[in-house]
Amino acid sequence: MLRRVGPSLRHFLLEKNSRAGRSSCSREAKMSRPVQARRLEGIDKNIWVEFVKLAATYSKVNLGQGFPDFPAPDFLTEAFSRALSGGNHMLHQYTRAFGHPPLVKVLAQFFEKLLGRDLDPMTNVMVTVGAYQALFCCFQALVDEGDEVIIIEPFFDCYEPMVKMAGGTPVFVPLRPNPPKDGKLMSSADWQLDPAELASKFSERTKAIVLNSPNNPLGKVFSREELGLIAELCVKHDVLCISDEVYEWLVYDGKQHIRMASLQGMWDRTVIIGSAGKTFSATGWKVGWVVGPDRLLKHVRTVHQNSVYHCATIAQEAVAQGFQRELMLYGKPESYFVQLPKELQQKRDWLVRSLDGVGMKPIIPEGTYFLVADISQFKSDVPDVPNSDEPYDQRFAKWMVKNKGLAAIPLSAFYSEAHKNNYSNFIRFCFAKEEATLKAANDILQKWKQEKTSS
Ligand SMILES: Cc1ncc(COP(=O)(O)O)c(C=O)c1O
């Protein structure tokens, strides 16, 4: 600021400031211009901060945030202990910046199998601090000022601010619910894109589309036909795909997770994002990765090298050992990637029955460890406030945790500001929980239901 004023005025201002400083030592120097960067405008609020705090303060049972409350598998924690206190003291030092060699090697081997193509561990794989950093690096590396990025609603909430921080403009397209006519419970497969609406969002300004399959929050696993439609549009309009596949192993009822990069013409334009936290039930480790063609990854590496650069070596070593085990047991019943979805499917079914029993209609997820439920029948307990800016489901979830001790996340948290009131009769539960936790949630719901019927 001072650079722009003439020398005498500058002298006067400096004098004035220093006099003010002397007369009131305790008063803080105020800058006359905003201290924050312009790119932070409008993205400072984050619903998770509020809901995590509410859950910590009030919840007896927390089915809100997405993490398991059961232990990570023994083979993984044992690998971590070996890495920590085994003989190799170099595991306490920096490792290769773009990924610990044993981890990128085994990830390349694994994805070669899954994608049916040769991969170079050094150029086709990069390790990050969780999938979150992988997403950040991809948006920063691939999205420019003025670019449009298509985001399918409902979406994992960080996509929108990350696109904006990169200077891009998010363009939203909703999954639209088609309730089954036969009175059956809705499935996440009943939430679909309208092909014409999706096509209308692509233009010469579109740089990328974000795909999240299996999808958080709905649990939708996109079908080959749906992926084919998106792929066709990407190829036609020369658009990239940021494919968030952190729940790739969590699919149920014999469904198959299809990888966008395996579709015709998509490898060259897709970055696959994964998470050891979700894969091995160890979200606190924050090990993630990006897999893709070098022509995209070389730019993703540039962002990584100028931001985080190194990820914790010991956690990478242990995850590498976890993948080596899984590679050996691939497709076998002892594989964690076979066992975990089996166990989670039982938990899902249990929660479906529990919610259905009290009239909080569940939408049966085909994948992930989340379940969205319709709260319409509970509306009388938390009356709507007409013309309120706050979506109904937010108020409901806050009321529920404060009054019933049960934490969940409002579905509106997964919609853009403009659309957050469109689907505000739903809340999301996480069912990656011990049996006792799910039973405790069921007790709360049953008691609530009894109170409702007797009142
Ligand atoms: C869809 C999706 N992507 C990415 C992440 C972030 O994963 P990580 O914990 O590995 O950073 C999450 C976490 O909940 C998620 O649900």
TrEMBL record:
<keyword id="KW-0808">Transferase</keyword>
<comment type="subunit">
    <text>Homodimer.</text>
</comment>
<keyword id="KW-0456">Lyase</keyword>
<dbReference type="GO" id="GO:0005739">
    <property type="term" value="C:mitochondrion"/>
</dbReference>
<dbReference type="InterPro" id="IPR051326">
    <property type="entry name" value="Kynurenine-oxoglutarate_AT"/>
</dbReference>
<keyword id="KW-0963">Cytoplasm</keyword>
<dbReference type="Pfam" id="PF00155">
    <property type="entry name" value="Aminotran_1_2"/>
</dbReference>
<dbReference type="GO" id="GO:0005829">
    <property type="term" value="C:cytosol"/>
</dbReference>
<keyword id="KW-0663">Pyridoxal phosphate</keyword>
<dbReference type="GO" id="GO:0070189">
    <property type="term" value="P:kynurenine metabolic process"/>
</dbReference>
<dbReference type="GO" id="GO:0030170">
    <property type="term" value="F:pyridoxal phosphate binding"/>
</dbReference>
<dbReference type="InterPro" id="IPR015424">
    <property type="entry name" value="PyrdxlP-dep_Trfase"/>
</dbReference>
<keyword id="KW-0032">Aminotransferase</keyword>
<dbReference type="GO" id="GO:0047316">
    <property type="term" value="F:glutamine-phenylpyruvate transaminase activity"/>
</dbReference>
<dbReference type="InterPro" id="IPR015421">
    <property type="entry name" value="PyrdxlP-dep_Trfase_major"/>
</dbReference>
<comment type="pathway">
    <text>Amino-acid degradation; L-kynurenine degradation; kynurenate from L-kynurenine: step 1/2.</text>
</comment>
<feature type="domain" description="Aminotransferase class I/classII large">
    <location>
        <begin position="60"/>
        <end position="441"/>
    </location>
</feature>
<dbReference type="GO" id="GO:0016212">
    <property type="term" value="F:kynurenine-oxoglutarate transaminase activity"/>
</dbReference>
<dbReference type="GO" id="GO:0047804">
    <property type="term" value="F:cysteine-S-conjugate beta-lyase activity"/>
</dbReference>
<dbReference type="InterPro" id="IPR015422">
    <property type="entry name" value="PyrdxlP-dep_Trfase_small"/>
</dbReference>
<comment type="similarity">
    <text>Belongs to the class-I pyridoxal-phosphate-dependent aminotransferase family.</text>
</comment>
<protein>
    <recommendedName>
        <fullName>Kynurenine--oxoglutarate transaminase 1</fullName>
        <ecNumber>2.6.1.64</ecNumber>
        <ecNumber>2.6.1.7</ecNumber>
        <ecNumber>4.4.1.13</ecNumber>
    </recommendedName>
</protein>
<dbReference type="InterPro" id="IPR004839">
    <property type="entry name" value="Aminotransferase_I/II_large"/>
</dbReference>
